[in-house]
Design brief:
Layout: H1 3-23, H2 26-46, H3 58-74, H4 76-88, H5 90-96, H6 103-130, H7 138-165, H8 169-185, H9 198-206, H10 208-220, H11 233-236, H12 238-266
Helix pairs in contact: 1-6, 2-3, 2-6, 3-6, 3-7, 3-10, 4-6, 4-7, 4-8, 6-7, 7-10, 7-12, 10-12
Protein backbone atom coordinates (compact mmCIF):
# COMPACT_ATOMS: atom_id res chain seq x y z
CA UNK A 1 0.00 0.00 0.00
CA UNK A 2 1.38 3.40 -1.04
CA UNK A 3 0.76 5.53 2.07
CA UNK A 4 1.29 8.99 0.44
CA UNK A 5 -1.11 8.08 -2.36
CA UNK A 6 -3.70 6.78 0.11
CA UNK A 7 -3.52 10.03 2.07
CA UNK A 8 -3.71 12.24 -1.03
CA UNK A 9 -6.61 10.30 -2.53
CA UNK A 10 -8.24 10.08 0.89
CA UNK A 11 -8.08 13.87 1.23
CA UNK A 12 -9.84 14.25 -2.13
CA UNK A 13 -12.62 11.91 -0.97
CA UNK A 14 -12.85 13.75 2.35
CA UNK A 15 -13.29 17.05 0.49
CA UNK A 16 -16.08 15.48 -1.53
CA UNK A 17 -17.82 14.43 1.69
CA UNK A 18 -17.40 17.86 3.28
CA UNK A 19 -18.69 19.66 0.18
CA UNK A 20 -21.86 17.64 0.66
CA UNK A 21 -22.64 19.88 3.65
CA UNK A 22 -23.26 22.78 1.26
CA UNK A 23 -25.59 20.72 -0.88
CA UNK A 24 -27.36 19.00 2.03
CA UNK A 25 -27.21 21.54 4.90
CA UNK A 26 -29.61 19.38 6.93
CA UNK A 27 -26.59 17.22 7.79
CA UNK A 28 -24.93 20.12 9.58
CA UNK A 29 -28.20 21.07 11.26
CA UNK A 30 -28.45 17.56 12.71
CA UNK A 31 -24.84 17.72 13.86
CA UNK A 32 -25.53 21.01 15.65
CA UNK A 33 -29.03 20.42 17.03
CA UNK A 34 -28.60 16.87 18.33
CA UNK A 35 -25.93 17.62 20.98
CA UNK A 36 -27.77 20.75 22.11
CA UNK A 37 -30.95 18.72 22.53
CA UNK A 38 -29.24 16.05 24.63
CA UNK A 39 -27.48 18.56 26.88
CA UNK A 40 -30.66 20.54 27.54
CA UNK A 41 -32.82 17.43 27.93
CA UNK A 42 -30.63 15.72 30.50
CA UNK A 43 -29.57 18.89 32.30
CA UNK A 44 -33.04 20.35 32.82
CA UNK A 45 -35.47 17.44 32.47
CA UNK A 46 -33.63 14.56 34.16
CA UNK A 47 -30.97 16.48 36.09
CA UNK A 48 -33.18 17.22 39.06
CA UNK A 49 -34.00 13.54 39.54
CA UNK A 50 -30.45 12.14 39.30
CA UNK A 51 -27.90 12.36 42.11
CA UNK A 52 -24.36 12.42 40.76
CA UNK A 53 -22.90 11.84 44.22
CA UNK A 54 -21.65 14.01 47.07
CA UNK A 55 -19.74 17.13 46.12
CA UNK A 56 -20.58 17.03 42.42
CA UNK A 57 -23.09 18.97 40.36
CA UNK A 58 -24.98 16.69 37.97
CA UNK A 59 -24.48 19.05 35.02
CA UNK A 60 -20.71 18.75 35.38
CA UNK A 61 -21.08 14.98 35.74
CA UNK A 62 -23.31 14.89 32.65
CA UNK A 63 -21.30 16.73 30.01
CA UNK A 64 -18.54 14.11 29.70
CA UNK A 65 -21.20 11.47 29.10
CA UNK A 66 -22.91 13.61 26.47
CA UNK A 67 -19.54 14.13 24.77
CA UNK A 68 -18.96 10.36 24.64
CA UNK A 69 -22.48 9.57 23.48
CA UNK A 70 -22.48 12.17 20.71
CA UNK A 71 -19.15 11.18 19.16
CA UNK A 72 -20.18 7.51 19.22
CA UNK A 73 -23.52 8.30 17.60
CA UNK A 74 -21.75 10.61 15.16
CA UNK A 75 -19.68 7.67 13.92
CA UNK A 76 -22.83 6.25 12.33
CA UNK A 77 -22.44 8.89 9.58
CA UNK A 78 -19.61 6.76 8.20
CA UNK A 79 -21.69 3.62 7.91
CA UNK A 80 -24.81 5.37 6.64
CA UNK A 81 -22.87 7.32 4.01
CA UNK A 82 -21.06 4.24 2.74
CA UNK A 83 -24.32 2.29 2.59
CA UNK A 84 -25.88 5.15 0.62
CA UNK A 85 -22.93 5.27 -1.78
CA UNK A 86 -23.28 1.52 -2.29
CA UNK A 87 -26.97 1.87 -3.06
CA UNK A 88 -26.49 4.74 -5.51
CA UNK A 89 -23.58 3.14 -7.34
CA UNK A 90 -20.91 5.63 -6.28
CA UNK A 91 -18.69 2.82 -5.03
CA UNK A 92 -18.60 1.40 -8.57
CA UNK A 93 -17.65 4.83 -9.89
CA UNK A 94 -14.84 5.16 -7.34
CA UNK A 95 -13.58 1.75 -8.40
CA UNK A 96 -13.26 2.92 -12.01
CA UNK A 97 -11.06 5.87 -11.01
CA UNK A 98 -7.23 5.66 -10.80
CA UNK A 99 -7.16 5.92 -7.01
CA UNK A 100 -6.24 3.81 -4.02
CA UNK A 101 -9.18 1.65 -3.01
CA UNK A 102 -8.63 2.22 0.70
CA UNK A 103 -8.73 5.99 0.06
CA UNK A 104 -12.53 5.93 -0.03
CA UNK A 105 -12.62 4.62 3.54
CA UNK A 106 -9.78 6.86 4.72
CA UNK A 107 -11.56 9.90 3.29
CA UNK A 108 -14.92 8.90 4.73
CA UNK A 109 -13.62 8.31 8.26
CA UNK A 110 -11.38 11.37 8.02
CA UNK A 111 -14.23 13.70 7.08
CA UNK A 112 -16.19 12.47 10.08
CA UNK A 113 -13.47 13.93 12.30
CA UNK A 114 -14.66 17.35 11.13
CA UNK A 115 -18.26 16.50 12.07
CA UNK A 116 -17.11 15.37 15.51
CA UNK A 117 -15.03 18.50 16.08
CA UNK A 118 -18.05 20.66 15.22
CA UNK A 119 -20.22 18.61 17.58
CA UNK A 120 -17.70 18.92 20.43
CA UNK A 121 -17.44 22.69 20.00
CA UNK A 122 -21.23 23.05 20.04
CA UNK A 123 -21.57 20.79 23.08
CA UNK A 124 -18.83 22.61 24.96
CA UNK A 125 -20.50 25.98 24.36
CA UNK A 126 -23.91 24.58 25.32
CA UNK A 127 -22.39 23.00 28.42
CA UNK A 128 -20.91 26.33 29.48
CA UNK A 129 -24.36 27.90 29.15
CA UNK A 130 -25.99 25.29 31.43
CA UNK A 131 -23.29 25.53 34.10
CA UNK A 132 -20.55 23.09 33.08
CA UNK A 133 -16.93 24.14 33.57
CA UNK A 134 -13.64 22.52 32.60
CA UNK A 135 -11.77 22.73 35.91
CA UNK A 136 -8.64 20.91 34.81
CA UNK A 137 -5.62 22.49 33.17
CA UNK A 138 -5.66 23.68 29.59
CA UNK A 139 -3.46 20.75 28.55
CA UNK A 140 -5.76 18.28 30.29
CA UNK A 141 -8.79 19.76 28.53
CA UNK A 142 -7.09 19.52 25.15
CA UNK A 143 -6.15 15.91 25.96
CA UNK A 144 -9.79 15.15 26.80
CA UNK A 145 -11.01 16.45 23.44
CA UNK A 146 -8.26 14.58 21.58
CA UNK A 147 -9.16 11.35 23.36
CA UNK A 148 -12.80 11.77 22.32
CA UNK A 149 -11.84 12.39 18.70
CA UNK A 150 -9.47 9.39 18.60
CA UNK A 151 -12.13 7.15 20.15
CA UNK A 152 -14.75 8.38 17.69
CA UNK A 153 -12.38 7.77 14.78
CA UNK A 154 -11.92 4.15 15.85
CA UNK A 155 -15.70 3.65 16.12
CA UNK A 156 -16.04 5.12 12.61
CA UNK A 157 -14.12 2.13 11.26
CA UNK A 158 -16.55 -0.25 12.95
CA UNK A 159 -19.43 1.60 11.31
CA UNK A 160 -17.59 1.61 7.99
CA UNK A 161 -17.45 -2.17 8.06
CA UNK A 162 -21.13 -2.43 8.97
CA UNK A 163 -22.04 0.06 6.24
CA UNK A 164 -20.33 -2.13 3.64
CA UNK A 165 -22.06 -5.36 4.65
CA UNK A 166 -25.65 -4.17 5.12
CA UNK A 167 -27.98 -3.67 2.13
CA UNK A 168 -29.39 -0.21 2.92
CA UNK A 169 -29.18 2.94 5.03
CA UNK A 170 -32.29 1.94 6.97
CA UNK A 171 -30.69 -1.34 8.00
CA UNK A 172 -27.51 0.30 9.25
CA UNK A 173 -29.49 2.84 11.24
CA UNK A 174 -31.34 0.02 12.98
CA UNK A 175 -28.20 -2.10 13.40
CA UNK A 176 -26.13 0.74 14.83
CA UNK A 177 -28.97 1.69 17.17
CA UNK A 178 -29.04 -1.86 18.56
CA UNK A 179 -25.29 -1.74 19.25
CA UNK A 180 -24.80 1.84 20.38
CA UNK A 181 -27.79 2.24 22.67
CA UNK A 182 -26.76 -0.53 25.14
CA UNK A 183 -23.14 0.67 25.09
CA UNK A 184 -24.04 4.25 25.91
CA UNK A 185 -26.86 3.69 28.40
CA UNK A 186 -25.29 0.73 30.25
CA UNK A 187 -22.37 2.96 31.22
CA UNK A 188 -21.51 5.78 33.57
CA UNK A 189 -22.36 8.37 30.91
CA UNK A 190 -25.58 9.53 32.58
CA UNK A 191 -25.77 7.91 36.03
CA UNK A 192 -23.16 6.72 38.55
CA UNK A 193 -22.18 3.07 38.29
CA UNK A 194 -23.38 2.43 41.84
CA UNK A 195 -26.97 2.67 40.64
CA UNK A 196 -26.68 -0.44 38.43
CA UNK A 197 -27.43 -4.02 39.53
CA UNK A 198 -24.22 -5.97 40.18
CA UNK A 199 -24.19 -7.85 36.83
CA UNK A 200 -24.76 -4.71 34.78
CA UNK A 201 -22.30 -2.80 36.93
CA UNK A 202 -19.53 -5.24 36.00
CA UNK A 203 -20.33 -4.85 32.31
CA UNK A 204 -20.45 -1.06 32.67
CA UNK A 205 -17.08 -0.95 34.44
CA UNK A 206 -15.37 -2.60 31.46
CA UNK A 207 -17.47 -0.88 28.82
CA UNK A 208 -15.16 1.39 26.75
CA UNK A 209 -17.86 4.07 26.69
CA UNK A 210 -17.64 4.16 30.49
CA UNK A 211 -13.87 4.46 30.46
CA UNK A 212 -13.70 7.21 27.83
CA UNK A 213 -16.38 9.05 29.83
CA UNK A 214 -14.44 8.59 33.06
CA UNK A 215 -11.18 9.65 31.44
CA UNK A 216 -12.74 12.82 30.04
CA UNK A 217 -14.44 13.54 33.36
CA UNK A 218 -11.12 13.33 35.20
CA UNK A 219 -9.23 15.36 32.59
CA UNK A 220 -11.85 18.11 32.75
CA UNK A 221 -11.67 18.05 36.55
CA UNK A 222 -15.36 17.15 36.85
CA UNK A 223 -14.87 14.80 39.78
CA UNK A 224 -15.47 15.61 43.47
CA UNK A 225 -12.66 16.45 45.88
CA UNK A 226 -11.02 13.33 47.21
CA UNK A 227 -12.32 11.28 44.28
CA UNK A 228 -11.31 7.61 44.40
CA UNK A 229 -11.69 5.53 41.24
CA UNK A 230 -13.71 2.28 41.40
CA UNK A 231 -11.84 -0.97 42.00
CA UNK A 232 -12.01 -2.08 38.36
CA UNK A 233 -8.63 -1.67 36.62
CA UNK A 234 -10.38 -0.21 33.58
CA UNK A 235 -11.67 2.74 35.59
CA UNK A 236 -8.49 3.18 37.59
CA UNK A 237 -6.62 3.63 34.29
CA UNK A 238 -9.38 4.92 31.97
CA UNK A 239 -7.10 6.67 29.46
CA UNK A 240 -4.88 3.63 28.99
CA UNK A 241 -7.83 1.24 28.78
CA UNK A 242 -9.60 3.45 26.24
CA UNK A 243 -6.48 3.67 24.08
CA UNK A 244 -6.12 -0.12 24.24
CA UNK A 245 -9.65 -0.41 22.84
CA UNK A 246 -8.84 2.16 20.16
CA UNK A 247 -5.82 0.11 19.11
CA UNK A 248 -7.78 -3.15 19.03
CA UNK A 249 -10.61 -1.64 16.99
CA UNK A 250 -8.27 -0.06 14.45
CA UNK A 251 -6.14 -3.20 14.09
CA UNK A 252 -9.22 -5.38 13.56
CA UNK A 253 -11.63 -3.20 11.60
CA UNK A 254 -9.35 -1.25 9.25
CA UNK A 255 -8.24 -4.37 7.34
CA UNK A 256 -11.73 -5.89 7.61
CA UNK A 257 -13.27 -2.75 6.13
CA UNK A 258 -10.73 -2.48 3.33
CA UNK A 259 -11.20 -6.16 2.46
CA UNK A 260 -14.98 -5.81 2.46
CA UNK A 261 -14.73 -2.68 0.31
CA UNK A 262 -12.65 -4.57 -2.26
CA UNK A 263 -15.15 -7.44 -2.25
CA UNK A 264 -18.10 -5.06 -2.58
CA UNK A 265 -16.39 -3.23 -5.43
CA UNK A 266 -15.70 -6.49 -7.24
CA UNK A 267 -19.40 -7.51 -7.31
Amino acid sequence: MNAPRVLIDGWVVAQRNLIKIKRVPEILVFVLISPIMFVVLFAYVFGGAIDAGPGLNYREFLIAGIFAQTVVFGATFTGASLAEDMQKGFIDRFRSLPMSRSAVLVGRTGSDIVYNVISLVVMALTGLLVGWRARGSFLDSVSAFLLLIVFAYAISWVMAYIGLIVPSVDVINNASFMVIMPLTFVSNAFVPLETFPSALQTFAEWNPVSTVTQAVRELFGNVPDGFVAPDAWSLQHPVVYTLIWVGIIVIVFVPLSVRQYVRASAK
